[in-house]
Specification:
The chain is mainly α and 162 residues long. Helix content is 60%, strand content 0%. Helix 2 (76-88) packs across helix 3. The chain crosses the membrane at residues 25-43.
Amino acid sequence: MAQEIEQVAPKFSTWKSLTHIQKNLTVLSMVLFLTIILGFVLYNSTLSKSTSVSHTEALRDNNPGSIANKNVCLTPGCIRAASSVLKNMDPSTDPCEDFYQFACGNFLKTTNLSRDQSSITSFTVAKDMLQHQLRIMMEAPHTPTEPKPFALLKRLYQACMN
């Protein structure tokens, strides 16, 4: 009485054997899939065109009063930073020949190493400048309008330095 278990492989249905609803759902899913793919392609193509156009317009439009330059930072901090970059540049060098010399040439010419330094960068120059400014602020006399934490800080600094 051994029962034999017969395994039946599923038969693949053809288009003719599908019901009307199955056919409609298949067509609808294909159309939806193609629409999504087309949407991604169009989105990516318009995105790349808009960025390339804006970069081209920004490069072409260099007039000081132009719309493209209204997004330029003109705060005192930005102007000082731009001035520092321009001060370190060497415009007499061709950037296509030696970009490092073009970008940093004047920094190399105008910056001197002290005896205790083995190297110097723009960051060490900025650090030294900030320490100098802090020392000047700490050594300045206390004013009555100065906030209490700053006055206490100056007193502590004076106590440590005496």
